[in-house]
Structure formats: structure tokens, C-alpha cells
């Protein structure tokens, strides 16, 4: 956090305001007080001098009234000089007496006796002699540079102006005194300001300390530390603020804990979801993408944040973000590659405020690869079944039509045509039976009924049956153990499996070919294989022959009466026994169908 500059600190502001207040107060008081004091002191000074004047005037009148004809009486100037010298005190620099003819009749200044007898030029004195009243003035003496007070008063005898007293007083002492008082005042102001500054700092500190505390606390809170508490210094407004602050801290901590808890819950829900979730802001940029979505879309979560969602879903050439906002129906995203199918269904829901303002979009991605596969298989199955049923029916219809159109009366054609329709009917029955078998096996409660069987004997019986009924010249080669081997199997079902494999081997064997039957004992299973020397199965179809309705060469197998379901049924049945079935083939050389069945020699011992 930014540090508060010294000049912007509360301390400085406080102290400055205090000092300014004190300064203004002192200035106002000072100006008023000093002015009043000056007036008072000047007036006192003047009054003290003026108070002594009547006595001087009286004495001067006495002297002036004396009859100077008497020789014994000293001359007027001498007497006046004495009076004036007596009158002159510390605060008076000179006193002169002037008669009504403007002649100076005496001065107190010893060194200035030469002016006695001279005419005065002073205007103030002249005005008084002309009948004026007392006059005074203060001015600065040019020689000394000090202020002096000049007073001129009339000397009256019987109401008539008989002369004037002219007085020069050293009023500078009064101003010196005032200067001293001023100095005291300035130092008092400085001391007051110093004390104020100290007090100001102390007062400011009582405010700033809790505030600094709160500031530190706020910084700590911003970093997620809620354990601190602000110290409450008192019960004033700042104390109340500190209490409120602590309360706020507690509330914030609770809210933070709650938000954190919610966040964790949400994030664990999102990360454990089996569906992918992507959320965007109102501009369609990704703001959240859960683990599953990033796996599904094969992107890293960090790099996709802030990217347009249309780009993330690889939809940018078909849809704009606005299109997705209006998208009510889910969109199927096909990310399948040649190696593996991968299909997602994306559902869109808009995050909207009550006002209708769009805040963003949530996309939920659901993996529908399996569903789509099953759906595709179902469609294919239905198409296959319809096709398989329609083919014999169309054949039968055309033959029956021919019979109806008259062929029935043809002794040669009629039995042949009826033979064909019978064959087709049988094929349809086989097909429907096979379908029923498969549908039974598909149902959940399909069970096999295993019993203990000597498998070698059981296998030999089946081969015998085929050997006896075979129509073409094909040799059978048995490479089977000559001892009994007991395993637990559902005889009926296994008969169907082996029947189908042998009849295929015979069907696809060339005239004079050989079919070989083998039985091998492996660790915990027996492996049965039936090989022929027929035309074989192309390598890429080796696994597909176990799929429903799959035939390598449709026309030929149909001609041979196959339904395309035999190996699919065999696979289901072997699977139900806990075994496995697969094919090996070299094209043109022959095919081997191999299957395994669980075998436990120890248990077998109990039975043999
Ligand atoms: P089908 O009833 O048509 O024989 P199957 O499920 O038994 O149906 O066999 C599926 C397909 O596998 C056959 O149509 C055939 O193309 C191929 N097939 C099965 N066994 C052999 C074999 N021994 N030799 C060559 N092809 C075979």
C-alpha cells in the first residue's frame, strides 16, 4: 500500500492548523493589546508631565509679575532659568518659557542659554501667543533619531496670554517599554506555539495510531489474514470505529470462509462430474472449463481460458456465439477420428438476469459415443433383418405368382417351384429362430444350464454325426486326446456352436478337402479348433465374421443357405461359458475357428 507522504499526514495537518490558530489568536490579541497599551502609556506619560505644569506656570507668573525695579531682585531670566532647571526632570529634555513678545525668557538646558533673549520661531508658540489653546505633537528628533513629545501651553495672567511654556519630553522611553513588552509577547507566542505543536502531535497521534492500526489490518485482510484485531484505545468515535472494524473483520472472515467452502464444493462437483462443463462470459469467452471438458476436447484448461467458446468447440465456421445463445436443441459434435469414434452432445443454457440481460452461456458436454454406436448398430440390425426377411419373401412371391399364373399345371415346373418356396420358408424359419436365440441371449436373464460332460466324447459324437451325413467327399481328421475330459458346459448350446462351425467348414471346403478337429489343454482352459482347406477369410474381416449378419461374400453365403448369424450366436454362447472365440485364416488356404472353454483339472478329478 502507498505510504502517506509526510506533508500529507494527519500529524502535519493537525499541527499546522493548531499553530495557525494560535498565531492568529496571538496576532489579534497582540495588535489590540499593544495598541491599547501604547495609548495608555503615552497618555500616562503626558498626564504626568502635564500634571506638573500648573505649578510651573504659577511660579513663572509669580516671577513675571515681580517688580524688577528693585535691585535686590535677580533678573527675570535668571529666576526663570532656575525654575525651569528645577522643573526639568529625567523625562524632560528641555523646557522653555516665552513671553508675550515671543522672546525666550529662559530654558532649562544649560548648554543652550544663548537662545535666551532671542525671538522664538516656533509656530506652535506663535499660535498660542496669538490666543490659541495648548498644542502638542510627537515627532522624531533628527539628531538622536528618538521620538520626542513637544508641548506648548499658554501662561495666563488674569485671563490674558502672558507667554507660553515650550516643553520637549523624552517620550522614547515609553516606546522602549512597549518594545520590551512586544518582545515578551513574541517570546510568549513562540513558547505557546511550541507547546501547541507538541500537544498537536500528541492529539494527532491519538487519532492516527488507531487509524494506522486499521490501515495495517486492512492490508493484512487484503492478503487474506483475518486473525489480526485492531486495538480499541477508548470509547470515543475512533474507539467505536475500531470496534466496528473488528466486527467487520469477523463478518468478512465468515463470508470469506463461506465463499471458500462454496467454491470448493462447486469445484469438487465440477471436477468429479462425468460430463464436461464450459462456462463463458457475456461475450462468449471461456471463463471456466472443468477437468472432464478439457479431457473431452483434448485442450489444456489454462490455454483455453478467455478463448471464444465457438473456437473451443470447433464450431466457429458454422455457429456464432449469438447462434449458440438461441440454440434450444443440443448440438452433436462429432470428433471421431479414423482410429476411434468420439461423439459429444452439447447442451446449451443461457445465464440470464431477470431483466433479460445475458451474462454468459453454460455448455454441458455429454459423451454419447456409446449411445450413438448402439443406435447405429440398432438401425443397421433392423435394416439387416428387414433385408434378410424381404429377400426370401420376394423370391417366394415371384415363384407363387408364376404358379398362380399357370405354372401349377406344369408337371415339371410346379414341383421345382414349390421346392424353392419351401427352401425359402425354411431359411426364413432358421433366420427367425436364430434371431430369437440372439434376442434371448441379449436379455438380461439369459442363463446357460451347464452339466459335467466328457468333452472328448461329446465332441466325437458331433463329428460322427457330420461324418455320417456328409454329402461331399471331405475327409475328417481328429486330433483329440483319447482320454475322457470332464468340463462343465451347456451341452445343447455347445452343440449348436460346434454344429455351426463344422457346417461352415464343410460349406466352404472344396471337394476332396480335409477338415481337422483339434483339442489342446492349456493352463486353465481347453482350446478347440476346427480347420478347413477352403477359400479362407480376408484378414481385415477376421473379427467381423462374428458380427451379426456379417458375411464376407453376401451372394455366395446366401446361396449356401447361411443367415449370417451363426458365428454371432456362437460368440455369445462361448462368452456365456466364460470362453473366447476367434478365427485364423490364410486366404485361399483355409480357415481355422478356435474357441476356448474354462477347464479345471482338479475339479475334473472329482468327477472322472
Ligand atoms: P453364415 O450362416 O452365413 O454361415 P456365420 O455367422 O456362420 O453365417 O458366418 C459368417 C460369415 O463368415 C460367413 O458368411 C462366411 O463369409 C464367413 N465364414 C464363416 N466360416 C467360414 C469358413 N470356414 N470359411 C470361409 N468363410 C467362413
From TrEMBL:
Residue ranges of every copy of the Histidine kinase domain listed in the record: 384-601
UniProt KW rRNA-binding keyword: no
Topology in the lipid bilayer: Multi-pass membrane protein
Highest rank taxon of the organism: Bacteria
Main enzyme class: transferase
Transmembrane segments: 12-34, 184-207
InterPro entries given in the database record: BphY/WalK/GraS-like, Cache_WalK, HAMP_dom, HATPase_C_sf, HATPase_dom, His_kinase_dom, HisK_dim/P_dom, HisK_dim/P_sf
Keyword tags: ATP-binding, Cell membrane, Kinase, Membrane, Nucleotide-binding, Phosphoprotein, Transferase, Transmembrane, Transmembrane helix, Two-component regulatory system
Subcellular location: Cell membrane
Domain HAMP: 205-257
Reactions catalysed: ATP + protein L-histidine = ADP + protein N-phospho-L-histidine
The EC number(s) this enzyme carries: 2.7.13.3
Primary location class: membrane
PAC domain span: 326-380
Location of the PAS domain: 262-327
Entry GO MF terms: kinase activity
SUPFAM superfamilies associated with the record: ATPase domain of HSP90 chaperone/DNA topoisomerase II/histidine kinase (SSF55874), HAMP domain-like (SSF158472), Homodimeric domain of signal transducing histidine kinase (SSF47384), PYP-like sensor domain (PAS domain) (SSF55785)
Name under which the protein is recorded: histidine kinase
Source organism of the structure: Bacillus norwichensis
Name of the gene encoding the protein in the UniProt record: walK
Amino acid at each position: 500500500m502507498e505510504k502517506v507522504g509526510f506533508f500529507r499526514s494527519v500529524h502535519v495537518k493537525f499541527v499546522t492548523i493548531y499553530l495557525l490558530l494560535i498565531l492568529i489568536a496571538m496576532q489579534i490579541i497582540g495588535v489590540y493589546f499593544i495598541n491599547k497599551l501604547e495609548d495608555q502609556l503615552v497618555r500616562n506619560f503626558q498626564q504626568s508631565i502635564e500634571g506638573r505644569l500648573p505649578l510651573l506656570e504659577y511660579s513663572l507668573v509669580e516671577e513675571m509679575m515681580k517688580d524688577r525695579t528693585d535691585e535686590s531682585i535677580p533678573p527675570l531670566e535668571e529666576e526663570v532659568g532656575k525654575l525651569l532647571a528645577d522643573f526639568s526632570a529625567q523625562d524632560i529634555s528641555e523646557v522653555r518659557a516665552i513671553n508675550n513678545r515671543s522672546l525666550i525668557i529662559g530654558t532649562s538646558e544649560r548648554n543652550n542659554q544663548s537662545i535666551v533673549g532671542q525671538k522664538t520661531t516656533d509656530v506652535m508658540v506663535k499660535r498660542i501667543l496669538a490666543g490659541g489653546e495648548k498644542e502638542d505633537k510627537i515627532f522624531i528628533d533628527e539628531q538622536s533619531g528618538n521620538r520626542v513629545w513637544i508641548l506648548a501651553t499658554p501662561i495666563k495672567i488674569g485671563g490674558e496670554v502672558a507667554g507660553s511654556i515650550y516643553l520637549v519630553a523624552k517620550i522614547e522611553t515609553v516606546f522602549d517599554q512597549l518594545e520590551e513588552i512586544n518582545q515578551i509577547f513574541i517570546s510568549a507566542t513562540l513558547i505557546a506555539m511550541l507547546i501547541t505543536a507538541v500537544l498537536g502531535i500528541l492529539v494527532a497521534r491519538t487519532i492516527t495510531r488507531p487509524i494506522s492500526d486499521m490501515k495495517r489490518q486492512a492490508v493484512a485482510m487484503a492478503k487474506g489474514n483475518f486473525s489480526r484485531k485492531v486495538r480499541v484505545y477508548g470509547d470515543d468515535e475512533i474507539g467505536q470505529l475500531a470496534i466496528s472494524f473488528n466486527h467487520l473483520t469477523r463478518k468478512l472472515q465468515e463470508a470469506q470462509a463461506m465463499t471458500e467452502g462454496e467454491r470448493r464444493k462447486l469445484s469438487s462437483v465440477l471436477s468429479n462430474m462425468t460430463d464436461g462443463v464450459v462456462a463463458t462470459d457475456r461475450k462468449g469467452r471461456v471463463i471456466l472449463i472443468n477437468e472432464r471438458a478439457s479431457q473431452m476436447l483434448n485442450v489444456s484448461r489454462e490455454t483455453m481460458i478467455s478463448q471464444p467458446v465457438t473456437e473451443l468447440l470447433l464450431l466457429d465456421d458454422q455457429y456464432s456465439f449469438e447462434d449458440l445463445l438461441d440454440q434450444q436443441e443440443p448440438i452433436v459434435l462429432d470428433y471421431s477420428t479414423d482410429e476411434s469414434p468420439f461423439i459429444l452432445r452439447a447442451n446449451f443454457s443461457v445465464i440470464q438476469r431477470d431483466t433479460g440481460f445475458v451474462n454468459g452461456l453454460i455448455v454441458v458436454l455429454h459423451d454419447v459415443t456409446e449411445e450413438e454406436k448402439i443406435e447405429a448398430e440398432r438401425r443397421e440390425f433392423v435394416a439387416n433383418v428387414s433385408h434378410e426377411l424381404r429377400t426370401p419373401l420376394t423370391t417366394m412371391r415371384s415363384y407363387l405368382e408364376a404358379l398362380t399364373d399357370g405354372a401349377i399345371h406344369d408337371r415339371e415346373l410346379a414341383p421345382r417351384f414349390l421346392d424353392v418356396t419351401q427352401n425359402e420358408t425354411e431359411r426364413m424359419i432358421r433366420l427367425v429362430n436364430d434371431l430369437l436365440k440372439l434376442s434371448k441371449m441379449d436379455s438380461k436373464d439369459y442363463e446357460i444350464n451347464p452339466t459335467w460332460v466328457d468333452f472328448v466324447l461329446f465332441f466325437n459324437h458331433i463329428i460322427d454325426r457330420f461324418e455320417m451325413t456328409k454329402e461331399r467327399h471331405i475327409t475328417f481328421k481328429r486330433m483329440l486326446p483319447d482320454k475322457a475330459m470332464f468340463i462343465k458346459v451347456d451341452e445343447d448350446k455347445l452343440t449348436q456352436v460346434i454344429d455351426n462351425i463344422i457346417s461352415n467348414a464343410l460349406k466352404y471346403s472344396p471337394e476332396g478337402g480335409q477338415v481337422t478337429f483339434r483339442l489342446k489343454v492349456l493352463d486353465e482352459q481347453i482350446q478347440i479348433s476346427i480347420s478347413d482347406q477352403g477359400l479362407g477369410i480376408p484378414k481385415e474381416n477376421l473379427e467381423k465374421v462374428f458380427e451379426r449378419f456379417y458375411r464376407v461374400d453376401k451372394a455366395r453365403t446366401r446361396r449356401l443357405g447361411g443367415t449370417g448369424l451363426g458365428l454371432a450366436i456362437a460368440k455369445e454362447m462361448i462368452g456365456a461359458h466364460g470362453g473366447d472365440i476367434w478365427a485364423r485364416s490364410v486366404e485361399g488356404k483355409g480357415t481355422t475357428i478356435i474357441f476356448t472353454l474354462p477347464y479345471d483339472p482338479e475339479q475334473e478329478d472329482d468327477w472322472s
